Amino acid sequence: MSVESNDGVTTIKQSEVIIPDLTIKDLLSAIPAHCFKRSAIRSSLYVAWDCIVIGSIYKATTFLEAFITPEVINLPHPILYPVARFSVWSSYGFLVGLFGMGLWVIAHECGHQAFSESKFINNTVGWVLHSALGVPYHSWRISHAKHHASTGHMTQDQAFVPKTRSQLGLPAFDPTQESILGLSVSAKVKKELRDALGDSPIGAALAAAGYLLWGFPAYLICNASGQKRYPKGTNHFNPNAVIFAPHQYDSVIVSDIGILLWLAGLAGSIHKFGFWDVFRVYIVPYLWVNHWLVLITFLQHTDPILPHYRAAEFTFPRGALSTLDRSLLGDCGKIMAWIGAHATHGISETHVLHHVSSKIPHYNAWEASDALRRRLKQAEIVLQGAPGGWREVYRVYRACRFVEDEGNITFYKNALGLAASRAKIMDDAASDSGVEIDTI
Questions:
Q1: Are 103 and 133 within 8 A, CB to CB?
Q2: Region 255-271: what's the mean pLDDT?
Q3: DSSP letters along 152-211, please?
């Protein structure tokens, strides 16, 4: 809600977001002990299941395609035959992309050593699965571990790091015209920011679509949306990149070998089967996997209600709790919500738990998440976002444009310089007594 005053200043009512002071021991103790157990056999069964489902979708698609001919079915117009085939293969790409994302999630669990008790098994399975999906396993595993260690940290986090006012080249902050907290902004500043950032609905939709399609390859190749302090040219394929320590050199090379084998497999398949067959059978689902990966992770870590921290206020529990759980495809109804959660192994629905303890396998994450939510509810913390889908990506993309260059706890501002949220810190003593400490 916004109120326009006579002098042209817009003031909004902000939501107060509790900044927790819970310890990691407090969070972990809420989770049943058996949830931490990992089983290579059980994890392997999920890999097998995903592959069986993907194979079944392929068989069903080719079976249906065989019937889309004038000899078998009589359609009113000849153009309807290619339209029908396109529809069948489009459905194939969508569904295989979802279950392919499930395989991606399991490979990601290997990187967290959550697949089994054996590091060798974890890294072998993870390297095979991630290489098959065009991901440099060890390279991404290393940077992703840094992301988990510093989630929401403005200078240490590795992905979805907000750009600041100065990094975007926006007009300097003017305390006489706007609130540093984004509570109020003058008409003059709103116009300056909107002109600099752009706030076109069509432009936002196109930018968000491009982000979903190419965001992950761009992150791997040129650190797009990654840590802003890294030098230009930082990428996940150079073993000497600032992301990696010297002792990780060989691991990056092994990751690069996996990508070279993947590219060789693609080239060989195109040579043998033709580009069109490889495109519809593999490349389209591959693009869908990248789409789901960016959509899910973007919405887990980006929202007007999520704080970002500078060093003075950052702790590991605060970072872990600066994420959201969302029902993937939940805005499409209960059936689609179930399909989305089942196909992607609940990675969107149990993400807060995953940041609290990344070694918990996905099949135990549901029970562990329920236990963690009960503990967080006692601290008046609810980390459940709106369902994950295109509509939510569009909303968040427009609402989260930049953060200020100052402030140890900062929230996103939109293209008008307004922030929907502000911080409220509750320390341990305050939690026990029911007293809240407002830092604003």
A1: yes
A2: 98
A3: TBTTT--BSPPPBTTTTTPPPP-TTTB-TTSSEE-HHHHHHHHHHH---HHHHHHHHHHH
Nearest partner of 180 among 5, 4, 410, judged by Cα:
410
SS3 label, residue 425? strand
- pTM for this structure? 0.93
Three-class SS state of 73: coil
Instruction: Return the amino acid letter for 328.
Output: L
| Backbone angle region of 107, left / alpha / beta, with phi > 0 → left and psi within -120 to 50 → alpha | alpha
Query: What is the amino acid identity at position 258?
Result: G
Q: Is 422 helix (H, G, I), strand (E, B) or coil?
A: strand
Cβ–Cβ contacts within 10 Å for residue 206, how many? 11
Residue 115 gets which letter from DSSP? S
Mean pLDDT rounded to a whole number for the chain: 93
Q: For residue 10, what are the β-bridge partners?
A: 4, 185
Please, where are the H alpha helices in 68-186? 80-111, 119-132, 137-149
Q: What is the pLDDT of residues 275-301, one digit of tens each?
A: 999 999 999 999 999 999 999 999 999
Q: E strands of 238-377, at which residues? A: 308-309
Query: Would strands 10-12 and 2-4 be described as parallel, antiparallel, or unpaired?
Result: antiparallel
